[in-house]
Amino acid sequence: MADVGVGEAVLGAGLACAGGVAWVVNARHQGVRRARLLFAGGGVAEPVPTPWERGLGELRRLYERVGAEWWTLVAGLVLALLGASVIPVVAGAAGVPVLRRVGKARRARLMREGRADAVIALCGVLAGEVRAGQQPGEALLRAERDSGGLGEGHAAAIAAARFGGDVPGALAVAARQPGAEGLLGLAACWRVAVDQGAGLAAGLDRLDGALRAERDQRADLRAQLSGARATALLLAVLPLFGLLLGAAMGADPLRVLLHTGAGLGCLVAGAVFEGAGIWWAARIVRGAEAA
């Protein structure tokens, strides 16, 4: 019990120091803002945020600067102080690469979806330019400038459109980027229009409709799977609520889990089952999305 008291005292001192640092930084920012308003020579003054808002802003910037994955290590250090054990630190360090991988996959998914939306916008703008009487090469230049839908492979396609090169081939190369697969359809429409004299605008309209329908289908599927994701997340955080409830009832769950044989066994078994459940739920969601 004495170790737990010492851990709580150290945690309280650390929080007090962090609060003092945040107060000093916020005071410095307020002084700089007042100086800017003083020497601005007129104009409408910006509303000065409250200390609570400034503190939240500093915490948000610190969170973005450190990275979400490293907060598991911070949480492990806090639990290690409260429970007087190194096990939470080891668990927090093990969670850093896992969360880093999850964050990397999320950023890749967002980039892929953004690129797919840009390709759809490119097809729509290109169809409008062609229908307005622009030549395909000039229309592609304007459409790409307005939408940016070719991503990293835009240089070769733009050069081919400007100097009469192999535009379908350049579009096929740009389509290798994740999310830009719709450019393969654009390359096929371009090739058919050039070789057989077919209407490029009509083909682009059909391609735009197909890509939009596919995007809407993915969005609908993601909405249907949001309930499963929320359930899996709730089941994942239930053990934390159990620890808080036990601490509120005076049972000292950290001492039982970290300093007794039965508690360590329950901790290992719970961690194994928790990881297996999260993995299985994520596998089901990924399988549904892939299908």
What is shown here, in short?
With 291 residues, the protein is mostly helical. It contains eleven helices and no strands.
Defining key terms:
83% helix, transmembrane, disordered N terminus, 11 helices, single chain, elongated
How would you describe this structure to a colleague?
With 291 residues, this protein is mostly helical. The protein contains 11 helices and no strands. The two termini are 54 Å apart. The protein has a domain at 115-207. The protein is elongated. Helix 4 packs antiparallel against helix 9 and helix 7 packs antiparallel against helix 8. The model is unreliable at 1-16 and 21-45 (pLDDT under 50).
Write the SSE topology.
Elements lengths: L1 H37 L12 H16 L4 H13 L3 H45 L4 H12 L6 H10 L3 H8 L7 H15 L3 H49 L4 H7 L1 H30 L1
Subcellular location: Cell membrane
Membrane topology: Multi-pass membrane protein
Keywords: Cell membrane, Coiled coil, Membrane, Transmembrane, Transmembrane helix
Low-pLDDT runs: 1-16, 21-45
Could you give the order of the helices and strands? HHHHHHHHHHH
| Overall mean confidence score, pLDDT | 75
Radius of gyration, in angstroms, nearest whole number? 28 Å
Distance between the amino and carboxyl termini: 54 Å
Give the % helix. Answer: over 70%
Q: Count every helix, treating DSSP H or I runs of 4 or more residues as helices.
A: 11
Specify the structural class.
mainly alpha
- In percent, how much strand structure appears in the residues? under 5%
